[in-house]
Each structure stands twice: as structure tokens, then as C-alpha cells.
């Protein structure tokens, strides 16, 4: 049997033992400090795991194992985000139900996950497509409906023709469907929403309470987009209609010479329908919806627009100003932008389309003319041609102009938000049925709680171009919960982000049939202490989960309002310069590596090559190096000694300190390097110190360390042993200094050896080292290390040794901390 075959047997042996003895299953324990570690639960779409997946799951497992060994009561569960469009599409292609497709996929991914050796509490498993889970989606929906948080309205929505489904704004950034990449179109439809805008201020302010990467917080702040300003009222020419524009720069109102409307605004159709401008405008809108939002709002990017044929009146100057549709206008505030010469974007747009411009701010308050400028005047200064505000500093005038506009009823001071209510409706089958019915007599009525869950029907036609749920008459036709008369069920289902907005709560009590969870259990485990996942979820899942948690607190179901105390975002695994993915054909499968080297080698390499938050490039050479490291760990078990060694004790305790601090801050490579360096410097080791090395490497390589631990005669599980604690009194920094000098000597000898061999072609077998007298003992103590790292027969002499061998008088060049060297 090969070494690698033995490794696979060892892995299976301990995975079976851990599962049989349920050593990772936990219960609430008020006497122990809890630690809830969680990775974002995966969508079970793949029939395999590649090294990118392995890296994600290993990062969380390392952290969970260390915390468990440090004495925490660790909850570390796994489940599946199993509703969603891919299963529905696959069922259409393969002719099987989404449920069977999903169950088969979960069984396969579980098999691969268990082969990783992760310390999950599998008794906590959940899948969001199971009725005992989505029943509580429906329960929470009803509670939100009763409080007015869930509501239905007609709204322009993002529509993906390929997926045949509506997308939330966050799912359609840059005009592309987040799932298939297809261009998204706009469509007016009746949709269900959650009123996340009511929570905008809390979502914004509470970011200061959580330990998240600043860039994720910034992304959420920008998405919420709170700003203080004024809605200014521009009358539409020859109409009673008022166009409201939101601005934070009302000091430039007297310079406004045109308006721009967002292509997504329903006002566009109202202004152009039936006019000669309609076709050109619609063609322009189709073009703009393909552009990335970040490009549209980038001040330096080319701006485009089209005239609507309509004019508005500037309420302060009474001048007639043209109304354009522009790619830089987005649905923020009212979706209408007032434009002037004090903005680079507006200035360049006006020059491009020959729109008149005028300034109202100059350095000294003296009038200046845009004709004399190649670009916008963006500096603060003194107002001119601004009515009673002329000769006033523009910044100081801002609040005064805002009050004046409001007093004269041509504006209103307001706070605006970029965030829009969360649209949850999806026109598809494989999701949680929305629990409402439509009754001609009673209107929109929620399903009675006693009748939950509303189950997905099986008699549907997946070949239909629209929503398969709409093909089941048995599902659609029902009775009204109020009047018991005939009624129709809602055929929309909830988007998958509803499922993932509270699943972390259900893990705390996943088998409860009477309630979504027991409040005592949830309040013991929550909030999640360490959440791990991708930064791409910053304004989708992470925002929605925070909102959902705040709603549940307001409804009295929990006593906290933030779900994740700490967040760690992951780097991506690349191969051949591209993100590892099936579509790129560059995946390295878990089984490719585990069958050849063992999964511990893969875990070690993935955690060693770079910090978990950084992207990494896969390397076949790297995995071979990790395998050799494991082989050296095994070999070290043959070098046990009873010999006490203060130098080794110092090194081991310093390694404990470095490794512990590094793992707590997710600097895994630093922890591994410190431990491996300590291990590699040893010719012999006491059993006590070898056990410490095993404990330090156990979270990274759990199988082989568990095996070696038991080979020492231990009967306990290493997985449940106590994490080593550094004994500061045993650390002697002088030993570190001496080790460094010995390492430097090894490098110097090897550099000289390389030069001699490359330039002179000489073979070398001996090294003679000359040191100052008071350093002799130190270098002699490191002689074994020098011999091992240089492969040379080495002797050390003090420079004043009369019997030294020194044929070329090299000893005269020796300096403190810098020995002289002669090779032959």
C-alpha cells in the first residue's frame, strides 16, 4: 500500500469515528462561552467540489476547530440554499422535477463536504426547499404583511427574458442578470415588496456596531445612499404638472439651464408617448440599459442624451429650459436631475448638445462667462446673479437658499435615499409560494397560519414559457380564508434571498415544528460571531439579512438587531490566470488532489499559499510541497526524546504565541510557517512538545494529526483537546537571535557554494567556519543545523585557535555576527 493510499484510509477512519461519536454536535450550555462560526450556505448546483470550494470550507473549519480547542461552545453548522432558478432550468433540460434534482445535488455535495473532514454539526442541517423550512418564510411574510412591511404595488421592474423572471435592483447591476448575464429590460408589473426603506437609517447607523471590513461597510453606505438636500419644483411648460428634482447643491439653482431624466423613469413615456420623439427616445433607452451603472455615473465617462421635445420652467429665473433623457441620470431621488455649468458632467453634456450655460459662482463674486471656460467652474466662491443671495459665500448660502425655496413653496427640504424597497416577487416555480389569496369580495387576504405551509404543487408544466405555477389549477383555485368563497392563489414565489435572510437563526433550533425557533436558543447562540463569505454579497444577502433581523426584533422574535458580529470576506482561487470554474475548463477537483495526496495536503497548501482574504493562484508544485511537509511531520514522530531543551521550549512557546494570534486574525500562512519552521529545525523532540506541534497543525491537517496523536498512546480526540497556551516565562529572545545567526550562516555557505560550483565547476564537501571567540559556543550549538542545511562536513573554529585549519587566512575577515568561511 502506498503512502497516499494509507493517507486516504486514515482520513476515512477518522471521519467515520468523528461522525459515529458525534463529537462536533453541540447544545446550549450557559456555563460555556459560545462561538457561532458560519460560512454562507452554498447553492447545491455542482456535482463536484473544486479547490476554490475546498478553500472556502477549510477557512471556516480551521477557525471553528481552534475556537473549540480554546474551550468555546462552538456551533458550526452546514445547510443548503436550495431554492432558485438553476434547479428549475435543469429540470426543464433533464426532464426531472426540481425537487429530485436538488435532493440529488445535495446528496452529492454532502458526500464531498464530509470527505473534507470539516467539523460541522451535521445534526443541524437544513435545506431551504424543504417545507418545514419555507413554512416559516411564509409565516414571517404574513407577520410583515400584517405590519405593512410586505406590500404589493405596480412598479417598473428589471426583467430577464432568458430567466423569465423579475430581478431586484441588486441582482441587475450594470444592466445584466446576475445569474445568466443577459441584458435586463424594464417592465411594469405588480410585484411584492418588503419595505426596507423604513429601515434605511438603522441599517446605516448600525454599521458602526459591527466588525466588518470597511470596504463592505462602504458598499452598504453607498447603496443606502443617504443625503440631505432639497426637492425643487420645476413646472412643466404648458401643463399643471410639477417636476421634482432632488439636489444637495441648491446654491446653483439660479444657473440651472436644463433638466435630465433617468431612462428608467416612468415619466419618460408620459413626456414622449405619441410624439415624434418617441421612437428615438425608446431606442436610446434600450442602449442605455446595457451600460454599467458605474460608467453612467462616472464623471469622466462620455455622456449621452436625447431631447424629449418638452421644456420646464426654472422656478427662480422663470426661464424656459429643455428636458433631456441622459445616461448619467439614474433613479435616485426623483430620477430627475437639474443641470448647470458648475458640474463637469453637466458642462460637458451641454457643450456636446449646444445647450446654453451660465455661471453664478466666482472667486470674488464678479460675473464670469462659460464661453471663456473649457470646463466647469467647480470651486466654491461668492454668488452673483442669484437674487438676494448674490455677494454671499455659496456654502454659507446653502441653508438660506433651501429655507427660501421652501418658504416660497418652490422647494422642500428633504432627506433622500438611494436604496429602494426590496422587491421579492419572482415569476417562477422553485421558490417559496407567497401565502396570499385574491378574493373578489375580501381583496388580498393572507393564508391562515394554521394552513401553512402552502406547498408547491407537482402538477405543473415546466415547458411553459411563463411561470409553471400558473399551470396548476388545483393550486390556483382555493377558498378565501375570510369568507370561504372562491379565491385565487398568488402564483409568484419569493426570491431566494428571502430564504438566506434568516437561515442562520433556524440552525439554532432546526427541528422545531411549532415555531421558527426557540427564542432562548436563538438568544444563546446569536449573533453569529464569525461569518465567512464573498464580498459580492455586500448589497444583496448581507443587506437583506441585516434588514430581516431588525424586523424580527421589532416583531418580538429576537432580542438583537445585527446578525453577524464579525465578517470575513474571501479571496478567489485562480488557475492559469482565470477564476477557477467549470465554464473556464480550469477546475482542479477535490478528488483529483485527495486521491493523489490526501485532503490534508490540499488543506495545508490552500491555507499556506496566501492569506485567506487574498486571491490565490493554484500550483501543482505547491501541493507537492505541502505533501512533503506532512511527510516530515510524520517522520518527526520517530525522533521523540526525553531530553529537556530550553532552546526548544522557547521556540515552541513562541510558536504557540505567533500561531494563536495569527489564526485569530485569519493570517493562516503566518501560523503555519511559524509551526513548520519550528518543526523543521529539530533533530529530536520531547513527546510534550511534539503533541503541541500536532495541536497547532490539527485545525489545518485534522486527519493525520489525529492519527499521530493516537499513535502516541492518547485515548482522547485531538479535535477536543485544549489549545496550547503560551508560557511567556519560557521564551528567551536570545535563542531567537542565535537561531537567526545560524540561519544567516547557512545562507552564506550555500551562496558561496553556488558561486564556486557555477563559476569554477569545483566539487565541495567541506566547510570551515571562523568566528570571534565569544560566539564559538553558539555556532557550535547550531552545527547540526548547518550540516543538515548545507550537506557539507562542517567545522567551526575561533579565530584565535592556534590549531585551526585556515589555508587561505580567511579567519582574518571574521566579524561579530558575521563568520568567515572557507570551502574545499
Task: Describe this structure in a few short sentences.
With 824 residues, this protein is α+β, with helices and mostly antiparallel strands.
N- and C-termini, Cα separation: 44 Å
The number of helical segments is 27
As residue ranges, the low-confidence spans are none
Return Rg in Å: 34 Å
Structural class: alpha+beta
User: In total, how many beta strands?
Assistant: 30
Q: If you average the pLDDT, what whole number results?
A: 91
Helical percentage: 25-40%
Write down the overall geometry: globular
Structure description:
With 824 residues, the chain is of the alpha+beta class. It contains 27 helices and 30 strands. The strands form nine sheets. A four-stranded parallel beta sheet has the order 2-1-23-24, covered by helices on one side. The protein has a four-stranded antiparallel beta sheet with strand order 4-3-5-15. A four-stranded mixed beta sheet has the order 9-10-8-11. α17 links the parallel β23 (530-533) and β24 (567-569). The model has no long low-confidence stretch (mean pLDDT 91).
Characteristics:
single chain; about 800 residues; alpha+beta; 4-stranded parallel beta sheet; 4-stranded antiparallel beta sheet; 27 helices; 30 strands; about 15% strand; globular
Task: Give the helix/strand layout.
Blueprint: H1 3-20, E1 34-39, H2 51-69, E2 73-75, H3 85-94, H4 98-114, H5 131-146, E3 150-160, E4 165-167, E5 185-194, H6 200-205, H7 214-224, E6 227-235, E7 242-247, E8 258-261, H8 267-272, H9 278-288, H10 293-297, E9 305-313, E10 320-326, E11 336-339, H11 344-352, E12 361-362, E13 382-383, H12 394-407, E14 411-416, E15 422-423, E16 425-426, E17 432-433, E18 436-439, E19 443-446, H13 473-476, E20 477-479, E21 486-489, E22 493-494, H14 496-499, H15 503-506, H16 519-525, E23 530-533, H17 541-554, E24 567-569, E25 573-575, E26 578-579, H18 590-597, H19 599-608, E27 616-617, H20 620-636, H21 646-664, H22 668-680, H23 687-697, H24 702-711, H25 733-760, E28 766-771, H26 776-781, H27 783-790, E29 793-798, E30 820-823
Parallel strand pairs: 1-2, 1-23, 8-10, 23-24, 25-27, 28-29
Antiparallel strand pairs: 3-4, 3-5, 5-15, 6-7, 6-14, 8-11, 9-10, 12-13, 16-22, 17-22, 18-19, 18-21, 20-21, 25-26, 28-30
Helix pairs in contact: 1-18, 1-24, 2-19, 3-4, 18-19, 19-20, 21-22, 21-23, 23-24, 25-27
Amino acid at each position: 500500500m502506498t503512502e497516499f493510499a494509507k493517507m486516504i484510509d486514515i482520513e476515512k477512519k477518522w471521519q467515520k469515528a468523528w461522525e459515529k461519536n458525534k463529537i462536533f454536535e453541540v447544545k446550549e450550555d450557559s456555563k460555556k462561552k459560545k462561538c457561532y462560526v458560519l460560512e454562507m450556505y452554498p447553492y447545491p448546483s455542482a456535482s463536484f467540489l473544486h479547490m476554490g470550494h475546498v478553500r472556502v470550507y477549510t477557512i471556516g473549519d480551521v477557525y471553528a476547530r481552534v475556537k473549540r480547542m480554546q474551550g468555546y461552545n462552538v456551533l458550526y453548522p452546514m445547510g443548503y440554499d436550495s431554492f432558485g432558478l438553476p434547479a428549475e432550468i435543469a429540470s426543464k433540460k433533464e426532464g426531472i422535477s426540481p425537487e429530485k434534482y436538488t435532493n440529488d445535488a445535495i446528496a452529492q455535495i454532502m458526500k464531498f463536504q464530509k470527505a473534507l473532514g470539516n467539523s460541522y454539526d451535521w445534526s443541524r442541517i437544513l435545506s431551504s426547499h424543504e417545507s418545514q423550512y419555507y413554512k416559516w418564510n411564509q409565516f414571517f411574510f404574513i407577520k410583515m404583511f400584517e405590519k405593512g412591511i410586505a406590500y404589493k404595488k405596480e412598479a417598473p421592474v428589471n426583467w430577464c427574458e432568458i430567466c423569465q423572471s423579475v430581478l431586484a435592483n441588486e441582482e441587475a447591476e450594470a444592466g445584466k442578470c446576475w445569474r445568466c448575464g443577459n441584458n435586463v429590460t424594464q417592465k411594469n408589473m405588480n410585484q411584492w415588496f418588503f419595505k426596507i426603506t423604513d429601515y434605511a437609517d438603522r441599517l446605516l447607523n448600525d454599521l458602526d456596531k459591527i466588525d466588518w471590513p470597511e470596504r463592505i461597510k462602504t458598499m452598504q453606505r453607498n447603496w443606502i445612499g443617504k443625503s440631505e438636500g432639497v426637492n425643487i419644483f420645476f413646472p412643466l411648460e404648458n401643463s399643471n404638472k410639477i417636476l421634482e428634482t432632488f439636489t444637495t447643491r441648491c446654491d446653483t439653482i439660479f444657473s440651472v439651464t436644463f433638466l435630465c431624466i433617468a431612462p428608467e423613469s416612468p415619466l419618460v413615456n408620459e413626456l414622449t408617448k405619441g410624439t415624434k420623439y418617441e421612437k428615438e427616445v425608446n431606442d436610446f433607452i434600450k442602449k442605455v440599459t446595457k451600460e454599467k451603472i458605474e460608467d453612467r455615473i462616472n464623471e469622466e465617462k462620455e455622456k449621452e442624451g436625447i431631447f424629449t421635445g418638452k421644456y420646464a420652467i426654472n422656478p427662480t429665473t422663470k426661464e424656459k429650459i429643455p428636458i433631456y433623457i441622459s445616461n448619467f441620470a439614474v433613479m435616485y431621488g426623483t430620477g430627475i436631475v437639474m443641470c448647470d455649468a458648475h458640474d463637469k458632467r453637466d458642462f460637458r453634456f451641454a457643450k456636446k448638445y449646444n445647450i446654453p450655460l451660465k455661471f453664478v459662482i466666482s472667486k470674488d463674486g464678479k460675473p464670469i462667462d462659460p464661453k471663456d471656460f473649457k470646463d466647469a467652474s467647480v470651486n466654491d466662491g461668492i454668488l452673483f446673479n442669484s437674487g438676494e443671495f448674490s455677494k454671499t459665500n455659496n456654502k454659507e448660502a446653502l441653508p438660506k437658499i433651501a429655507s427660501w425655496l421652501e418658504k416660497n413653496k418652490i422647494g422642500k427640504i428633504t432627506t433622500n435615499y438611494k436604496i429602494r424597497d426590496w422587491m421579492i416577487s419572482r415569476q417562477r416555480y422553485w421558490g417559496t409560494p407567497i401565502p396570499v389569496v385574491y378574493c373578489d369580495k375580501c381583496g388580498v387576504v393572507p393564508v391562515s397560519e394554521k394552513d401553512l405551509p402552502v406547498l408547491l404543487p407537482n402538477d405543473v408544466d415546466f415547458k411553459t414559457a411563463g411561470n409553471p405555477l400558473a399551470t396548476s389549477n388545483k393550486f390556483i383555485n382555493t377558498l378565501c380564508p375570510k369568507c370561504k368563497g372562491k379565491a385565487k392563489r398568488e402564483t409568484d414565489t419569493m426570491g431566494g434571498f428571502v430564504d438566506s435572510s434568516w437561515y442562520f437563526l433556524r440552525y439554532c433550533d432546526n427541528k422545531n415544528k411549532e415555531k421558527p425557533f426557540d427564542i432562548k436558543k436563538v438568544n444563546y447562540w446569536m449573533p453569529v460571531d464569525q461569518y465567512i463569505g464573498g464580498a459580492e454579497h455586500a448589497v444583496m444577502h448581507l443587506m437583506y439579512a441585516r434588514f430581516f433581523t431588525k424586523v424580527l426584533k421589532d416583531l418580538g422574535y429576537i432580542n438583537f438587531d445585527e446578525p453577524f458580529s464579525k465578517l470575513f470576506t474571501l479571496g478567489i482561487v485562480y488557475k492559469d490566470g482565470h477564476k477557477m470554474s467549470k465554464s473556464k475548463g480550469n477546475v482542479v477537483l477535490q478528488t483529483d488532489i485527495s486521491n493523489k495526496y490526501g485532503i490534508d495536503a490540499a488543506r495545508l497548501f490552500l491555507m499556506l499559499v496566501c492569506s485567506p482574504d487574498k486571491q490565490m493562484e493554484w500550483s501543482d508544485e505547491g501541493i507537492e510541497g505541502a505533501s512533503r511537509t506532512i511527510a516530515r511531520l510524520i517522520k518527526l514522530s520517530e525522533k521523540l526524546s526525553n531530553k529537556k531543551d530550553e532552546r526548544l521550549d522557547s521556540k515552541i512557546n513562541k510558536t504557540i504565541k505567533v500561531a494563536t494570534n495569527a489564526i485569530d486574525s485569519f493570517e493562516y500562512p503566518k501560523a503555519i510557517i511559524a509551526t513548520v519552521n519550528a518543526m523543521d529545525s529539530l533533530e529530536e523532540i520531547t513527546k510534550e512538545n511534539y503533541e503541541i506541534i500536532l495541536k497547532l497543525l490539527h485545525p489545518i491537517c485534522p486527519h493525520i494529526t489525529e492519527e499521530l496523536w493516537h499513535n502516541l498512546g492518547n485515548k482522547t480526540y485531538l479535535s477536543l483537546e485544549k489549545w496550547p497556551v503560551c508560557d511567556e516565562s519560557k521564551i528567551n529572545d536570545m535563542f531567537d537571535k542565535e537561531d537567526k545567526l545560524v540561519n544567516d550562516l547557512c545562507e552564506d555557505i550555500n551562496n558561496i557554494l553556488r558561486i564556486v560550483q557555477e563559476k569554477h565547476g569545483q566539487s565541495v564537501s567541506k566547510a570551515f567556519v571562523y568566528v570571534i571567540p565569544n560566539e564559538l559556543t553558539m555556532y557550535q550549538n547550531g552545527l547540526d543545523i548547518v550540516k543538515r542545511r548545507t550537506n557539507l562536513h562542517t567545522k567551526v573554529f575561533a579565530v584565535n585557535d592556534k590549531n585551526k585549519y585556515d589555508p587561505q587566512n580567511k579567519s582574518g575577515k571574521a566579524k561579530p555576527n558575521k563568520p568567515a568561511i572557507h570551502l574545499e
